[in-house]
Amino acid sequence: MFDASTYDPISPHVTAEEIGRYAQESRRQTEGAGSRVGNRAEFTLVAPVIQPTGPSVFRERAKKAQIEAPYWEGRLGTVHDLRVCLINDDQQLLFAATYSDDFMPYVQDVIRFAGPWIDYIFTDVAEDYPGVKSPDETLQYIAKYQVEAGIWYGSPDPEATPRDITKSLRVTNAFNQLLDTVQE
């Protein structure tokens, strides 16, 4: 727990009390690796890439995977953001997401609702990728390559889910349209 009375900020231009207004208690995910703040959690996986062909397969598929990302991730309804890229001179594939929910329901939803998309990204790119056809093999693969972030920020409101945010934006847009209509 953050204690402003004992905290010494990085910058002398910021008080411990000011830092305390923004502090978030990060804890470890209960059923897997990953940090969690409120209802949000981070998922980071770093897998070796098949050499020499994996990088070119990834690049060939990236545009289509990007086009379809909102559809597949939207089916889950818990994903705040996602990054997938080649790193370390194309030797590794980074898959990093922020999501709402607990670890196992998130992974099960990914397998159930976005399996074809995940397979499209990983198959023939990531070494030893088993596909999502077998949840047990998928969980073993995740356990082997998942890493936990050392520093992770859960957003200004770590309790808000993507569904909450979408609903709030709809209400805000409807209210703004009402105001615009009244002002006309």
List keywords for this structure.
alpha+beta; globular; 184 residues; 6 strands
Report a brief summary of the structure:
The chain is α+β, with helices and mostly antiparallel strands and 184 residues long. 45% of the residues lie in helices and 18% in strands.
Question: Helical proportion?
Answer: 40-55%
Q: Mean pLDDT, rounded to whole units?
A: 89
Helix/strand order: HEEEHEEHHEH
Which term fits the overall shape?
globular
Q: How many DSSP-defined strands?
A: 6
Can you summarize the main beta sheet?
6 strands, antiparallel
Mind telling me the C-alpha Rg? 20 Å
How much of the sequence is in beta strands? 15-25%
**Distance between the first and last residues' Cα:** 51 Å
Structural class: alpha+beta
Topology (elements, then pairings):
Layout: H1 16-22, E1 27-28, E2 35-37, E3 40-48, H2 54-76, E4 79-87, E5 92-100, H3 103-122, H4 135-145, E6 146-147, H5 162-183
Antiparallel strand pairs: 1-2, 2-3, 3-5, 3-6, 4-5
Helix pairs in contact: 2-3
